[in-house]
Amino acid sequence: MKKRILSILLIEDDRIEVMKLKRVLSKSDLKHHLVEAKNGEEALTILQDKSNLPDLILLDLNMPKINGIEFLRILKDDSYLKYIPTVILTTSNNHNDVKECYEIGIAGYVLKPLKYDDYVEKIESLLAYWSINELIHI
């Protein structure tokens, strides 16, 4: 089965979490392209370039300026951007957060595990899934 290299927008304000994801990506057979945003405002600026949209957005919920849920609402209200699969990657296992995110229209909700090996396994599985998925390119 042929896998595709993904363009990923990571919206995360914690540098350690960014470094962890980069480490997992560097060890992957597929050299996925990663673009980073420190918060929702920065991500919206990046997404203004409609000619270079990501295949997948990984979104933290707890961020300054625009939090993850606020960003998600803006994203899903945009007739062009709403088709980008967005997966929540967070430490929040709050049932209300999970429910609200799915109601808005996320593609998945992944809890960041404490153990690094578990984190690697989750990220590798997530990326393998989206690497074989059919994506909408408008």
Would you give an account of this structure?
By secondary structure, the chain is α/β, with parallel strands linked by helices. The chain has five helices and five strands. Strands 2-1-3-4-5 form a five-stranded parallel beta sheet. Strand 1, helix 1 and strand 2 form a beta-alpha-beta unit. Helix 1 crosses helix 5 and helix 3 runs parallel beside helix 4. The protein is globular and about 35 Å long. It starts with 6 loop residues before the first strand and ends in a 6-residue tail after the last helix. The model has no long low-confidence stretch (mean pLDDT 93).
List keywords for this structure.
17% strand, single chain, 5-stranded parallel beta sheet, 41% helix, 5 helices, 138 residues, alpha/beta, 5 strands
Mean pLDDT across residues: 93
The major β-sheet equals: 5 strands, parallel
**What structural class results from the helix and strand content?**
alpha/beta
What radius of gyration results from the CA coordinates? Answer: 14 Å
Helix content: 40-55%
Compressed to H and E, one letter per element, the order equals EHEHEHEHEH
Q: β content, as a range?
A: 15-25%
Based on Cα principal axes, name the global outline.
globular
The CA-CA distance between the termini, in Å, is 24 Å
- Which residues form runs of ≥5 with pLDDT under 50? none
Order of strands across the main sheet? 2-1-3-4-5
DSSP strand tally = 5
Helix count from the secondary structure assignment: 5
List the helices and strands and how they pair.
Layout lengths: L6 E5 L3 H12 L6 E5 L2 H7 L9 E4 L8 H10 L8 E5 L4 H10 L3 E4 L4 H17 L6
Parallel strand pairs: 1-2, 1-3, 3-4, 4-5
